[in-house]
Design goal:
By secondary structure, this protein is α/β, with parallel strands linked by helices. Helices cover 28% and strands 31% of the residues. It has three helices and six strands, in the order H-E-E-H-E-E-E-E-H. A six-stranded mixed β-sheet has the order 1-6-5-4-2-3, with helices on one face. Helix 2 crosses helix 3. The N and C termini lie far apart (56 Å).
């Protein structure tokens, strides 16, 4: 009896894990690195600055982040604001031999797959003091040929969801 129960549980756990792998799960992760030292009730408006953001990512990363932060009750105003939000791009090569290869430079002769983690880092600072009051990042592991990327429509829902989940700890107005 015990053996059949163990076997059934083992099969159930294995099936669950395989189903989770097959469904893909969330492709974009998120992490909060600094939360809640600010006076959040006083913040009403924010401005956005980009740092080291590839051109093809800029517009839609800003659009998806804007939507997620505005759901928290803040309004974007790049001229008069309480917070300055910096969105920056950083990537980490997962293969040391590929450290010098630019993942965004299309190389016709290159057949070597690149593996790297793409990070969008979010830092919020008070406009008046420059004090950092919130930070986090979203990230995704990529396995692509140099210059290959599939963003925009395919990735937008997952990126919006990752920004929304990352901002869950940000106090709503």
């Amino acid at each position: 009896m015990r053996q059949s129960v163990r076997y059934t549980l083992l099969v159930l756990v294995a099936s669950t894990l395989l189903a989770a792998c097959a469904s893909g799960g969330p492709q974009v992760g998120h992490t909060v690195t600094l939360c809640c030292p600010g006076n959040y009730q006083a913040y009403r408006a924010y401005g956005i600055e980009l740092q080291d953001m590839p051109g093809f990512l800029s517009d839609y990363m800003v659009a998806e982040f804007d939507a997620a932060l505005q759901d928290k009750g803040l309004v974007r105003n790049d001229r008069l604001n309480d917070l300055v939000v910096t969105l920056s791009y950083r990537h980490v090569n997962l293969n040391p031999e590929q450290e010098e290869i630019d993942p965004f430079e299309r190389r016709i002769e290159e057949e070597q797959m690149l593996r790297y983690i793409a990070n969008i880092v979010v830092e919020m600072r008070e406009t008046d003091t420059g004090r950092e009051v919130w930070a986090g990042r979203i990230n995704r592991i990529h396995t692509v040929l140099p210059g290959e990327y599939m963003h925009e429509q395919g990735a937008r829902p997952e990126i919006r969801d990752a920004f929304t989940q990352m901002l869950e700890s940000y106090p709503a107005l």
